Known about the structure:
The chain is mainly α. The chain is 73% helix and 2% strand. It has a two-stranded antiparallel sheet. α1 (2-33) crosses α9 and α5 packs across α6. It has a single domain (2-116, 125-278), classed as ABC transporter involved in vitamin B12 uptake, BtuC, CATH 1.10.3470. It has helices at 2-33, 40-58, 62-83, 93-115, 141-163, 165-175, 177-182, 187-209, 219-234, 239-260, 267-278; strands at 131-133, 138-140. The termini are far apart.
Amino acid sequence: MVQALSGQLLIGLINGSFYALLSLGLAVIFGLLNVVNFAHGAQYMLGAFVAWMGMQYLGLGYWWALILTPLVVGLLAVVFERLFLRRLYGLDPLYGLLLTFGAALVLEGIFQNIFGISGNSYPVPALLQGGSNLGFMYLPRYRGWVVVVSMAICFGSWFVIEKTRLGAYLRAGTEKPLLLQGFGVNVPVMFTLTYGFGAALAAFAGVMAAPIYQVTPLMGSNVIMVVFAVVVIGGMGSIVGSIVTGLGLGLVEGLTKFYYAPASDVIVFVVMAIVLLVRPAGLFGKAQ
Length: 288
């Protein structure tokens, strides 16, 4: 029983690591640009597919994919922001949501037409194959790598945004963009790079997910609603809320699968409903 519980908690921790990483990108984009980026799931899917295509057609391994894929997807996001998204700044966030939702549908449709809906496998890198017997459970080495790297990226992003001068510029740009531009900061370029960074986080998560889950055009749409629930529970735009809530809900999901598996698909949304009733701004959000 202990081994079964530990296994479900490990699965929950892995899922929570992806939730935290994806919700961090959403929180960064919403908190700094006030854009509800519904294309985030498609960017996560695109990251997995770019890694898979790099392996299939160019012979690029996992480590190269981990470096190059976020750059490729981030660059595509920069082009999308400059051509379309920046025209909606200052308008109701609903317009940005509709635009990014439409972009996600188009991207998923293209990949479904090309690759179908069946999954494609991506191998675990040789360096991270195997695992360790901890006595109470068997820990696959790659799963441990995912948790550690996800947490390092999340807390590194939090530190840059909350504790450095660059982060201060980003936060100031959301509140007083004209004043910040008066001090010589190119605010439009800063916003463009912020959107690219959020998309690169999603792509990074997609590369790390590829050896665990099947690479399929639907992998983004399968996770994006849960990730949005994580962001809402943590507080829209809250970096800390996204990280803590993503990990916590992953563990709650794992516990629910152990005790009552049918409820695991809805437990996140039940928690969201309860939190919104008690604290509408989210656990770490600030009331307007």
